[in-house]
Write a structure and sequence with these properties.
homodimer; 17 helices; 9-stranded mixed β-sheet; elongated; alpha/beta; 12 strands; about 350 residues
Chain lengths: ~350, ~350
């Protein structure tokens, strides 16, 4: 089924070579709508944009194929949203550079719900990913849709956590929506398309280009009420997302870690610059003036690791006999519990038969 | 050798049952000095303190033995300091409750040098103790005497680190100075008495009493320019020290850690309340507007302390001509010495031709 005339005009303009979102918004303001822009004379267009861009509009010089968009819209789960659509994310209208057109797969209702960005390192630690997932689930259960960038590491964990909660998750990607990047997140992307939403401002077919990721980050910040950074090295993309969030007047939250971990350096810099240190999802809800759900496990990691044996372990190495004495258990019971806790990442076996609590 | 009359009067009043430091300061203000207090009539005393305390003063009702103080002062390394002594820590005079009399073992010069409190949990992790020691050494090398409470864990590590640096360490304890508590810190206490200083406001023979430790903490905060908390559980004594430091208008610094470690909870709470997150000793020096030494020298000759020029420098910036006048040397001789001292990290060149002593 061919596109409606006005949507066809939006798509054609969004694909016009050299025509930025900013220039397109100026044209729309000048002429009233996309069809009026396409009917305007070269002289009239040149009063708003450069002659080169006016020629590109008039000559239909495109960097993408409208027919591909039409085909893609054959899937009922896919939608193109423009600035004129009621479903367009209203939060983005408060930002300096809202994309005139975006591609969305999944639940449109998520685009206008209270949301929180949860971002961090692609090279996250196992503990960092557990933390991101636990916070995301808690925040999702408290009514915040979790927005992230579908990267490996913290992003993927945040999406998984958001999906597990009540308010789902929204992935904002830097490629065309017909591409899943990175490939290792294919299953996750499908789950999000089904139970959450994936969004991109980039035309179908756009490959992963480094230059596009900072643009993607501005949408993540722009759609969220606040931005939580879980693990981030210095000079990482997550710090860009946090900086944009701060510039937009949103709260920035960061989770601290060991001063000896390079993956905590970025979070510590953010806190020094004024980001709020959080060690519990309730900290974020309080700052955003949202109620903390009653009886909700604040974060799964602490629930997971509340094994009674841990109460008898400090963070210094200890042997099994000492632990048995402290806990009033037999050594073989202690051994069994330690092995379980080791599998869960809560303790580590050290040389010499010693054990150390990790969390 | 018997005590001088005025010191004997100070000691007797400090040991008088029921006479608090606050009441003693009131009496001193009213009568002019300790001997005058002891010569005052019951009626005159009762105009300032309760009749019960006046009777205790007149009846020499003591909770300690002045003869024991006399015997203790037989060791040349021991001193009793009163509010009237030039060596009394001037910083404490800015606090609401300076002890009228204190017992000191070791280097009196440390009591009036720039200092930083480094405190934390008795049940610290191995990593926490390493961190405390490393920060303490760096701060000591940068010109800050490290003050702590001689407890196990972070306190002991802070003292060791301070001793290893150029500006040594000061232990403020909650027992009589003839008691070493905890016993496991005996060797450390001896090293501090020799190369640093230990002080207590509590009479000789005072055992470790829980009620005395918060009082001890107020001296730690009161003598320091800022307070660094390395690892602390919720509701720990370190948080009291930090709170007092904050109330006294001093900077509070805290080292973050894993959100899953109970020993970082206290530090995280402090940061949420406004303490400065630090992950490098340079953060503290910057906040206190102290220069960061070029290197991180661990082994510097103690002969440096006796460089004649340093005796003419306070820790405030000074110009070369002033120094030349003080030292009775030519300006070019001062310049040469300063350059040598700068290379050794003992002084820093400031803008405007000024120099500042660091150690």
């Amino acid at each position: 089924m061919p596109l409606a005339a006005d949507l066809a005009a939006w798509v054609r303009l969004s694909l016009t070579s050299g025509l930025s979102g900013e220039s397109l918004r100026k044209l729309l303001a000048a002429f009233g709508g996309p069809e009026q822009v396409l009917e305007a004379s070269r002289a009239a267009l040149s009063g708003v944009v450069t002659a080169k861009i006016a020629d590109a509009i008039l000559g239909a010089e495109l960097h993408g194929d409208p027919a591909a968009v039409e085909a893609w819209l054959g899937d009922a789960n896919n939608r193109v949203l423009t600035l004129a659509d009621a479903e367009y994310p209203r939060a983005l209208l408060q930002t300096p550079d809202p994309p005139p057109l975006m591609y969305v797969k999944g639940r449109l209702d998520l685009l206008n719900r209270p949301a929180i960005a949860v971002v961090g390192s692609r090279n996250a630690t196992a503990q960092g990913k557990l933390t991101a997932e636990a916070f995301a689930t808690a925040l999702s259960n408290a009514g915040l849709t979790v927005i992230s960038g579908l990267a490996l590491g913290i992003d993927a964990a945040a999406h998984r956590g958001g999906l597990a909660g009540l308010s789902s998750t929204l992935a904002v990607v830097g490629t065309g929506l017909d591409k899943v990047y990175p490939a290792r997140n294919r299953d996750l992307a499908h789950a999000i398309a089904e139970k959450g939403a994936i969004l991109s401002e980039f035309p179908l077919g756009t490959p992963p280009l480094a230059a596009n990721f900072p643009r993607r980050n501005r949408l993540i910040s722009g759609m969220a009420r606040g931005c939580l950074v879980v693990e981030a090295a210095m000079s990482s993309g997550s710090l860009i997302t946090a900086r944009i969030a701060n510039e937009l007047g949103k709260d920035v939250f960061a989770i601290p870690g060991s001063i000896h971990s390079t993956l905590s350096k970025g979070c510590h810099v953010l806190i020094k610059q004024g980001a709020k240190l959080v060690d519990d999802a309730a900290d974020i809800l309080g700052e955003l003036r949202l109620p903390v759900p009653a009886g909700a496990p604040a974060n799964r990691a602490s629930a997971l690791f509340s094994h009674p044996l841990l109460a008898h372990m400090a963070f210094d190495p200890v042997d099994i006999d000492t632990l048995a004495g402290r806990a009033g258990l037999q050594a073989h019971e202690i051994s069994a519990a330690l092995i379980q806790l080791e599998l869960e990442g809560a303790v580590a076996a050290l040389p010499g038969g010693l054990w150390q609590r990790l969390i």
